[in-house]
């Protein structure tokens, strides 16, 4: 099975944010203040403050993307899957410093395999990769690094009980990564549980 799609979106009055330098006493910021970085201004502990205002973009904002998914059943014990996605936002016409909060990797993909082993055992293995990208939050802006994880599980099906005993984990190789700027590092997570199929 092959699935291919493409999209293009056009936004008017796109909502984003713009940051400004201001003074607590209402006075006009100096040229030196306007030229300094946000970190320098915050460390100074002076009358200066950073203001963030939600605003609509006057220009049309365009996004586009594509996705490709492939699934191939080699045999009952093995199905190979893969998917890739591309996401873009065009910022060329936006004012300098306009924050779009388009916190999406440009490139990401998955590679996996799953199937039925023996009579009652099933499994799934999946590798995920995402490209590092700019991540904008109201309180912080930064760049995430590329990150990847390996997820897998094995299950044993009990037919008469309509139940599957499952053991698995995400990020099995403990490749710590951050998927939200300012968020925690995500490490290995293992689990065991029951899946009950209610007929």
UniProtKB/TrEMBL annotation:
It is found in: Cell outer membrane. SUPFAM superfamilies: Porins (SSF56935). Its main location: membrane. One of its GO terms (cellular component) is cell outer membrane. Keywords: Cell outer membrane, Membrane. Residues 2-172 form the TonB-dependent receptor-like beta-barrel domain. InterPro entries: Beta-barrel_TonB, Beta-barrel_TonB_sf. Signal peptide: none annotated. Pfam families: TonB_dep_Rec_b-barrel. This is TonB-dependent receptor-like beta-barrel domain-containing protein. It comes from Hymenobacter cellulosilyticus.
